Structure formats: C-alpha cells, structure tokens
Amino acid sequence: MTTISVGAKASIKKAFSSDELEAFAKLSKDFNPIHLDEEAGKNSIFKQRVVHGALVNSLFSGLLGCELPGEGTIFIEQTIKFKAPVFLDQEIEAFVEITNIREDKPVITLRTYALNDEGTIVIDGVAIILFPGLKS
Amino acid sequence: MTTISVGAKASIKKAFSSDELEAFAKLSKDFNPIHLDEEAGKNSIFKQRVVHGALVNSLFSGLLGCELPGEGTIFIEQTIKFKAPVFLDQEIEAFVEITNIREDKPVITLRTYALNDEGTIVIDGVAIILFPGLKS
C-alpha cells in the first residue's frame, strides 16, 4: 500500500469499449450520439466517437476510492478540465497525486490527470477529499 | 425543445439502485465498499451505503448532452462540490441552468446542482461547455 504523503501517486491504464460507453449512457442517461453513433462521431469536430468526459473522470473515483488514499474516501470537491478528446478503445493512463494534506483535518488535495497513448494530457484537475482513516 | 438562453433550465429525477452502483463500480473500477457493501456503509460516517459522487455527477452529462443545450455538447470544464451524501434508492433531482453564453464563441456556462427528496442540495457546481450547434 502506498504511503499517504505529499507526492504519492497512483495510476491506472484503461481503454473504454463500445459496450462500456453504452453501459455508461444507460446510467447517466447521456445518449449524446457523439459517444454512441459512428456516423455522429464522424460528423463531429473530432471526426470519430469520443468517450463521455464524465466516464473518463470516473477513473479518478476508482483511483481515489480504491488506491490512493483508498477505501473510505469521500469526495468534497473536484475541478476537471477536459483538454482533449478520448476516443473509443484508446488507452489512457489516469493519475492521482497528493499535493496537500491538511494538518488540522483528514482532508487531502490531489492533482488528477490523464494522458493518452501519445502522451497528451486529455483531462486535468484537482480533487479534494475527506479520508476519515487518515492518522494525523 | 428549450430555447438556449440565460435562465433556461432542464432537470431529471433519478434514484440509483444497487445494480446501478455495481455497474458503475465495474466501469470506474471504484469498488470502495462504502458504495457497495451494506456493512461498510453502516460503519461509515453516513451510516448507510452512498452513491458514488462521480455517478451522481454523471446526471449532468445526460442533461447537458441530451437536454440543454443537447446533442453535440462537448465538456470544457467542470467544478463539482459534493455537499451531502446521496443514498441508495434515494430520489434526487438534478438541474442544469444556463448562467452565461459567450458572444464570441459557442461556449455556455451552466450551474449544475441536485437536490435530494428533502430539498437539500447534495451537489452543486458549474459546467462550461462548447456547443458547436449554437447559432450566434
């Protein structure tokens, strides 16, 4: 298990399949055809189907909730900048990195970002979370 | 179809089931037991299972991508404050409301928030989106 300290980092590699985009569309009710329909993707400014930004963002939920700091994580606040599209079946790597730990409360700030397979930042942001399990 | 103008609003009512939490856990790899396990929920500060914040947030993806402004929406930036927990099977109502439309570019700012069945704000934030279909 990674030590919970400033600079600690966790990451996950993931590509989203057509089935996963459909599953997410059902959960979010986001049936925007730019995500689901080949033709609509082609006619968009991206020229192909793109993964829902909120689905890409969900990888940070997984990293924060299961890796760093891990089980028990409660989200307080999140800022997300969608910098570049993520395409269907394109592998990205999502990272969380601790940038601050409050001394008075078990509150942790992390940079949350992801790179595509060309090394381009596709999403960048900050998450502030409560981690009751933190020993201070 | 709602007119795209400052003050325009769209909303959706939704409760998340155990099956949906499990489906989202698989997509996000967020198997944090506070969401999935009855016992872990009871032992948390919330005393019961809570819905993944990133899943609650996905409702804005649906509203923005399919309702207001609708198909073709591309996320640029989002800020989310998680103000109160959303419990399993608890109905919430999520809203998006246009607060600004840029004159020089098809860029729209919306307040994105949700209320639980007691009228408490559970999530509050801002989304900035690109909507190429906007006639200016």
Describe this structure in words.
Chain A has one domain (9-130): Roll (Thiol Ester Dehydrase, Chain A), CATH 3.10.129.10. In chain A, 26% of the residues lie in helices and 33% in strands. Chain A has helices at residues 18-28, 33-36, 38-43, 53-66, and strands at residues 9-14, 74-82, 92-101, 107-116, 121-130. Chain A has a five-stranded antiparallel sheet, covered by helices on one side. The model of chain A has no long low-confidence stretch (mean pLDDT 94). The interface between A and B is large, with 45 and 45 residues. β2 of chain A pairs antiparallel with β2 of chain B, so a sheet runs across the interface.
Secondary structure layout plus pairing:
Two copies of one chain form a homodimer.
Chain A: E1 9-14, H1 18-28, H2 33-36, H3 38-43, H4 53-66, E2 74-82, E3 92-101, E4 107-116, E5 121-130
Antiparallel strand pairs in A: 1-3, 2-5, 3-4, 4-5
Order of helices and strands of chain A: EHHHHEEEE
What is the name of the CATH topology of chain A?
A: Thiol Ester Dehydrase, Chain A
Shape of chain A: elongated
Low-confidence runs of at least 5 consecutive residues of chain A:
none
Total number of strands of chain A: 5
Number of helices of chain A: 4
Could you estimate the helical fraction of the residues of chain A in percent? 25-40%
- Under CATH, the homologous superfamily of chain A reads Hotdog Thioesterase
| CATH class identity of chain A | Alpha Beta
Please give the oligomerization state of what you see.
homodimer
- Rg from Cα of chain A: 16 Å
Largest sheet of chain A, in brief, is: 5 strands, antiparallel
How much beta of chain A, percentage-wise?
Answer: 25-35%
> What CATH architecture of chain A would you give?
Roll
